[in-house]
Amino acid sequence: MTKTILNLLAVTVLTTAFSPFSEPMRDDDFRIFLDNQAYLSNIFSLQEARLTQGHTQFELWAGSYWPIHQGLLAQRYADPLFPKSKDFLENYNDHMLRPPETLVAAGNINQLSPAEKYDLLVGDTNWTLTKAMWARGQATLIQYGSVPTWTGICHGWSAAIHMGVKAPRQSVVVTDVSGQHTIEFYKQDIKALMSYLWAESSTDSIQAGNRCRQDIVIKDPYQRPVDAACLDSNPMSWHLAVTNRIGYQQKSFVMDSTSGSEVWNFAVKGYDYSYFNPRTFETSHNIKAAIEPIENMTADKYQIHRSPRTKYIVGVTMDVFIPALVTPAVNEGRNDRTKNYNFVYDLELDETYTIVGGEWHSFARPDFIWSYGSTGRAMTQEDLTLNESWDLDNRLPDSYAAKAIEASQKGKVLARIAEALLNESLYP
């Protein structure tokens, strides 16, 4: 770190007295992501520290959200006969007509789903984990009459990759607990197990902002949501979380990328922003030209919502880069595929040009953002009682199999198995 950045990081302390509308609410505090480290919140300090763009220190891989309507980890993506329908019942009925035993008997183990391969590995003749996958869809169908296509474990995939879980590099071939079956876990199988592990067995998360649960968001005449939970993460919280955690610390966090009731979790891997004048809407490479005194904002539709501390306003256009959402396949392609969102908002500045609030201009915006503590790890209670190691050149130990079945009965997978497969895939 340069002396310049060290000096800049020492300048800022923000008040915690957030008001509900003009400034971030108390539960929308970006500082929870910063591990008690110093941060920048002055617009010129961010510029001088070259934090108008940034990226994480490790690669975040493209992946699937393993949708519930296709069976979660029971989706047979390598099976050409699997329907891959948007209708849950069509997929479930195919599974019932062609149970995993039939594929195993026919020598088509490679066509099994990740959950079925896991059950076969641990010698679970009841296929407990696989049944747990389909049970999730059945429960949703009974409760709501249909299984929405957006539901899955995007929170698990995003949790895993933003915490530094590496992408598998190759398939792994192992022998099941009985010594009878040789099973090849494809890279997508390993990604699925790691995503599910983090979805179901991770530590407590930290969050800024609230989830909006309304399908139709009621807005005031100024197009701001009436329900405070639907105001989305305040632009100030968003901007300072991005610039300080990703730009400065080079760590990631997860955002719900949609502002409505659906939740689409994506780990953020990078960003790049520029400015515009909020009065003229002209873009500018000169930050001073983009900053407008509040008294000049005579047509400001957000005037009644502005922080009473606001002296200036500056517009921001930010491109946010996330790993691509992909359909599971045996030949999965490149891991570094990305997608980007464009968020447009303004930031309210006090007399010292410190950011104190902001308003969204674009419909696209993050609903809330979240992460885990730096020492967070995903594991089950069953993992804690395993002392034996597994040499993947040998069959799965009986102790692993027994604990895995116990965990499967709770709808979980052993971290010791998922992580062993991943580690083996990383080192030929």
Number of DSSP helical runs:
13
Question: What gross morphology would you assign?
Answer: elongated
Quote the average pLDDT: 89
Radius of gyration: 24 Å
Helicity, in percent?
Answer: 25-40%
The end-to-end distance, rounded to whole angstroms, is: 36 Å
Number of strands: 13
Low-confidence regions: 1-21
Order of helices and strands: HHEHHHHHEEHEHEEEEHEEEEEHHH
- What percent strand? 15-25%
- Structural class comes to alpha+beta
Major sheet description:
7 strands, antiparallel
Domains (count): 1
Describe what this molecule looks like in 3D:
- The protein is elongated.
- Helix 8 packs antiparallel against helix 13.
- It has one domain (1-66, 153-428).
- The relative contact order is 0.18.
- The chain has 428 residues and is of the alpha+beta class.
- Strands 1, 7, 8, 9, 10, 11 and 12 form a seven-stranded antiparallel β-sheet that branches. The chain has a four-stranded antiparallel β-sheet with strand order 4-13-5-6. A two-stranded antiparallel ribbon has the order 2-3.
- The chain contains 13 helices and 13 strands.
- The chain has helices spanning 3-9, 43-48, 88-97, 100-105, 114-121, 128-144, 154-162, 187-201, 235-248, 287-290, 381-384, 398-408, 415-426, and strands at residues 53-55, 172-175, 182-185, 205-208, 254-256, 265-267, 270-276, 283-284, 291-293, 312-323, 338-349, 355-360, 369-372.
- It starts with a helix and ends with a helix.
- 29% of the residues lie in helices and 16% in strands.
- Strand 7 (270-276) and strand 8 (283-284) form a beta hairpin.
